[in-house]
Request: fold
Amino acid sequence: MAKKGKGNRVQVIQDGESIPIPSAIEMVAELFRNSGEKYGRYLVPVWNRTSRTLYKGKGDSLKLASKYTDNGDWDEAFSIWKDLSQSTDSTSVSKAYYNMAVYYELEDNLGIRTINKNGLKVTLESAVKKGFLKSY
Reply:
């Protein structure tokens, strides 16, 4: 049941409670505001929390780098991964490059110039050999 309330505002009585109904202008304004906020979320970058897993490995180098990251010393860990990326062991190289990619993401540096292309080739070949990738 609708009736006129204070200030000639239409109100609805529901379960014995008087609920005001917004005017047409207020409804349109709210619709535009909600639409604008929803559309704005597509235009404005939003930071979302996420987590990444780092390879710790069996080797002493990866374990030491893991301790550095646990203590917040990412630069020192990166130094170890960079040295490890020159290894002849393709598994260690792959893990080192993965961890380095996480570091670059953390530093908000996702440019391709930061990646050693030869090391990336070794990593991809290792992934193909182990069946993680079919080909590249």
Remarks:
- The chain has a mean pLDDT of 80.
- The longest strand covers residues 10-14.
- DSSP finds five helices and three strands in the chain.
